[in-house]
């Protein structure tokens, strides 16, 4: 009798296990499709914002950290009016600055430039925000003399802040050819990316929220 039950149960167990595996694979496939579709939407959206910024180079608002960047000096952000990214030497000399494009009153593209007081490295970081203020994408390029490297990184996030995908490239800063950090004997020192997950997390948000955003075309 026991042998008979085992023989009867074995096919059932195999079926259950197979069904569970099939269900898991189906769910994984569906999740991948949803993820891939969201990634495609984010890439298309960020391209639209890049195009929008190029068409409207003077519709940005400009912010900068006017502190010296030395240890102990408090960070002090302020807004600069009547300036553009192409004709402002002073703003480009600051340790941190940001150019903000808005749509319908919501900040959607923030282009930040960070650099060391000594000028040994510069980090250009673009933040792409949805109209609800959530972070959709980060595109960053680090140029550093520490290792003579260029590092290009991209991170995409869903509306809840979950990382969907990330990529990075290591290049020789002069030739822009692929190079592993330290392979030429030069010490590479990386610089982390600050991920502002919402518009409200921006260090100059208090300034951004005080003055109405520039009108868009």
Question: What can be said about this structure in brief?
Answer:
The chain has 217 residues and is of the alpha+beta class. Helix content is 29%, strand content 30%.
Q: What features would you describe in this structure?
A:
- With 217 residues, the chain is an alpha+beta fold.
- It has one domain (54-210).
- The protein contains three helices and eight strands.
- The chain has helices spanning 2-55, 89-92, 205-210; strands at residues 61-65, 77-80, 96-103, 106-115, 121-129, 135-144, 149-157, 163-172.
- Strands 2-1-3-4-5-6-7-8 form an eight-stranded antiparallel sheet, with helices on one face.
- A hairpin with a 2-residue loop joins β3 and β4.
- It is extended.
- The chain starts with a helix and ends in a 7-residue tail after the last helix.
- Residues 213-217 have low confidence and may be disordered.
Identify the notable features of this structure and list them briefly.
217 residues, alpha+beta, 3 helices, extended, disordered C terminus
């Amino acid at each position: 009798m026991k042998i008979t039950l085992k023989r009867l149960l074995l096919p059932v167990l195999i079926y259950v296990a197979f069904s569970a595996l099939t269900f898991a694979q189906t769910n994984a496939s569906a999740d991948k499709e949803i993820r891939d579709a969201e990634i495609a939407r984010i890439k298309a959206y960020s391209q639209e914002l890049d195009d929008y910024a190029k068409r409207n180079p003077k519709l940005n608002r400009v912010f900068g950290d006017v502190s010296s960047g030395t240890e102990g000096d408090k960070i002090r952000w302020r807004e600069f009016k009547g300036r553009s990214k192409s004709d402002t030497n002073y703003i480009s000399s600051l340790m941190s600055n940001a150019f903000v494009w808005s749509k319908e009153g919501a900040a959607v593209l923030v282009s930040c430039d960070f650099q060391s007081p000594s000028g040994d490295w510069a980090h250009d970081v673009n933040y792409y925000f949805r109209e609800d203020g959530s972070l959709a994408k980060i595109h960053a390029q680090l140029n550093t003399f520490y290792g003579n490297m260029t590092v290009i990184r991209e991170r995409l996030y869903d509306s809840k802040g979950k990382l969907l995908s990330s990529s990075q490239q290591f290049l020789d800063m002069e030739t822009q050819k692929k190079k592993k950090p330290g392979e030429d004997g030069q010490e590479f020192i990386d610089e982390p990316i600050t991920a502002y997950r919402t518009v409200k997390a921006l260090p100059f948000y208090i300034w951004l929220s005080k003055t109405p955003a520039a009108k868009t075309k």
